[in-house]
UniProtKB/TrEMBL annotation:
Domain of life where this protein originates: Eukaryota
Localization: Nucleus
Chief site of localization: nucleus
Cited Pfam families: zf-LSD1
Record keyword tRNA-binding present: no
Keywords of this entry: Membrane, Nucleus, Transmembrane, Transmembrane helix
Lineage, uppermost ranks: Eukaryota, Viridiplantae, Streptophyta, Embryophyta, Tracheophyta
A GO CC annotation given for this chain: nucleus
All copies of domain Zinc finger LSD1-type, residue ranges: 8-28, 47-71
Record-annotated membrane-spanning stretches: 14-32
Keyword Manganese: no
The protein's name in its UniProt record: Zf-LSD1 domain-containing protein
Length: 81
């Protein structure tokens, strides 16, 4: 099967997981991050406040950073995942 990636909601590390998984546990932060529903188009951007990598559902107009709480404008980010 294929692999995909997402960012841990707790420590912001990039997590790799098998396509079809419903959640993934971060080995560093020990937190479980749920997968978006199948077919959801995701994008990513770098926070203007703390430079953390943020993932969001494509089409959102703004994204609040869970680390520093900066509200970032989402201009299609740096591409789909």
């Amino acid at each position: 099967g294929g692999r995909s990636q997402l960012v841990c909601f707790g420590c912001r590390n990039l997590l790799l997981y098998a396509v079809g998984a419903t959640s993934v546990c971060c080995a560093v932060y020990n937190a479980v991050t749920a997968m978006p529903p199948p077919g959801t188009k995701m994008a990513q951007l770098v926070c203007g406040g703390c430079h953390a990598l943020l993932m969001y559902i494509r089409g959102a107009t703004s994204v609040q950073c869970s680390c520093c709480h900066t509200v970032n404008l989402a201009l299609e980010g740096i591409g789909p995942l």
